[in-house]
Write a structure and sequence with these properties.
The structure is a homodimer of 348-residue chains. Chain A contains 9 helices and 14 strands. Chain A is α/β, with parallel strands linked by helices. Chain A has 2 domains: 138 residues, Rossmann fold (3-Layer(aba) Sandwich), CATH 3.40.50; 193 residues, Dihydrodipicolinate Reductase, domain 2 (2-Layer Sandwich), CATH 3.30.360. In chain A, helix 8 links the parallel strand 12 and strand 13. At the A-B interface, strand 9, helix 5, strand 10, strand 11 and strand 13 of A face strand 9, helix 5, strand 10, strand 11 and strand 13 of B. Chains A, B: It catalyses: L-aspartate 4-semialdehyde + phosphate + NADP(+) = 4-phospho-L-aspartate + NADPH + H(+).
């Protein structure tokens, strides 16, 4: 059989925050596209989207949509992936899934290409894209783990509303306008759409992302914990997370404490390791107030790290600050990079 | 000499964010006031302030302002305290200082009344009010230390702009309006007035509060570290801080990891200890999405704690979330409570 040189790509959830970003990135990236199918729920079907100067009509995603599709990029929520990803696989497509539906499934590789590209080889038709807050953290933890060994991680996050989709961005925008106009702020969505209480996000901090689990942690916190262990191939890694939603539109930030195996390391050792890591940019110079922020990282492709310093009590402990665009590397870009590596390595 | 039943109080920095709050609180609190002197820089002198239905003219603070003053409450910046607090003491006043000028001076008690009231007895005319982010954290750490022993603390903060004064609130307000009007945001103040670079705070997160120290930590982070050790009377306490400024007007939040000496504790043990602590209110029930937020804590007097959970790897480790109004318990209220305890205990 002749080797394929162009591919039919389906984007499921094409009108959502991540789906829109995927379509934008596909225009700029190196995947040779034979045909692009934009799929969505029935509600959004019929919308028109411009791609490469051509108008594409969004169609309702049904099992038959995946006939002749080579790669299907899913980001339409876990229930859609549960229902339609197996249908896509059955029809010969490889699925890259942006939801949490398959991430902890032991037959599904969970991949950040810079971190564990080799895991892609063992796919059975579905590859899971990790949670946004996990991706940027493991991009910095992996080079440290490889160079010095990693014992323990404690992270507190500073997360943007776009992680909850376009509706959450609209809610922050609306509450901000209400504040400026001297009106009471109305909250109808955050912290979690289906939960009982809704709280204002503008000028506030919500220590709840996704629903609470029985152990008192939120699902977002458990995602960071469990996904990091899987991606870093270390079930024994001690790791804890506190996840907080903030009035920021784009980019998640993280305050990370990492304890390494190797003794006697300096700040410079960690800085060099991060600075040389694939996909990571070191922005770290206190003397010139150089450090990443959500606004400086927005629309960029890389993971940015700064504020590296040594714990004052534990010689093996280091603190640093990690920022990345949650819709780019945190979602759409990583999804596309997975597809690129599948093609380049002929692992489709 | 007959015991005093009413006191002459001076407020230095009366037109600032904390000073204004002090004046408001003095109206509501139990300190019997003979005379209230409102003092400021030359620039703000002449302004009129209402107090107990009477107009008081703000005067320029000079050494002679403190003649006959019993208690002087300073919050006009470190340099003003350095210059004028000794002048006030020389004239017989007891100073409660809200700046960092004297906090680590070993002859100056650094006090949160619920935590270390007894330290007030050793004052030599000056008592220091701790940093806002320190106060709310030690209010929760002290009962834990007392009940179970405290080995280690790692904190990441979520801090409001009002900690940088009224100007910083104006800057957030201005940038927010610029965003709503589709204009570019202008940054002229934050993260630090005197530093070279200024960065937008609206819809952003700045991992710098106060200037950088030689060890890579900011002054705010070192304040939290050093002040907590002093207030908790434990120089050997392992403690690290990452301080972040956010687009929030009022109330600081903190993600705290605390490691205790005692083994085998449950979440309930920590919750009960926090819930019974003086000045602390436990708001913690994941089942009903009950936890404190900056907006819910604003204008309140207490320190609010929630999201208590056990570390998943360390049996002695607990994570929790602490929120308090940074101008109230974090500054003005704690200052006034110190004055109240001095009077009640006859320790003036």
């Amino acid at each position: 059989m002749a080797e394929k040189t162009a591919f039919t790509i389906a984007v499921v959830g094409a009108t959502g925050a991540v789906g829109q970003k995927i379509v934008q990135l596909l225009e700029k990236k190196d995947i040779p596209i034979k045909q692009l199918k934009l799929l969505s729920s029935q509600r959004s079907a019929g919308k028109k989207v411009f791609f490469a100067n051509r108008e594409i009509t969004v169609e309702e995603a049904v099992p038959e949509s995946f006939e002749d599709v080579d790669i299907a990029l899913f980001s339409a929520g876990g229930s859609v992936s549960k229902k339609l990803a197996p249908e896509a696989v059955k029809r010969g497509a490889v699925v890259v899934d942006n939801t949490s539906a398959y991430r902890l499934d032991k037959d599904v590789p969970l991949v950040v290409p810079e971190v564990n590209e080799q895991d892609l080889q063992s796919h059975n038709g579905i590859i899971a894209n990790p949670n946004c807050s996990t991706i940027q953290m493991v991009a910095t933890l992996k080079p440290i783990q490889e160079a010095f060994g990693l014992k323990r991680v404690i992270v507190s996050t500073y997360q943007a509303v776009s992680g909850s989709g376009n509706e959450a961005c609209d809610e922050l925008e609306e509450q901000t306008k209400q504040y400026v106009n001297g009106e009471d702020m109305t909250a109808e969505l955050l912290p979690v759409k289906g939960d009982e209480k809704h709280l204002p996000i503008a000028f506030n901090a919500l220590p709840q992302i996704d629903v609470f689990q029985d152990n008192g942690y939120t699902f977002e916190e458990m995602k960071m914990i469990n996904e990091s262990k899987k991606i870093l191939h270390d079930d024994a890694l001690a790791i804890a997370a506190t996840c907080v939603r903030l009035p920021i539109f784009t980019s998640h930030a993280e305050s990370v404490y990492a304890e390494v195996e190797e003794n006697g390391l300096s700040v410079k050792d960690i800085q060099n390791t991060l600075g040389n890591a694939d996909g990571v940019v070191l922005e770290d110079d206190p003397q010139t107030q150089t450090y990443p922020t959500p606004l400086s990282a927005a629309e960029k492709e890389e993971v940015f790290a700064g504020r590296v310093r040594k714990d004052l009590d534990n010689d093996n402990g280091f603190h640093f600050w990690v920022v990345s665009d949650n819709l780019m590397k945190g979602a759409a870009l990583n999804t596309i990079q997975i597809a690129e590596r599948l093609i380049q390595n002929k692992w489709l």
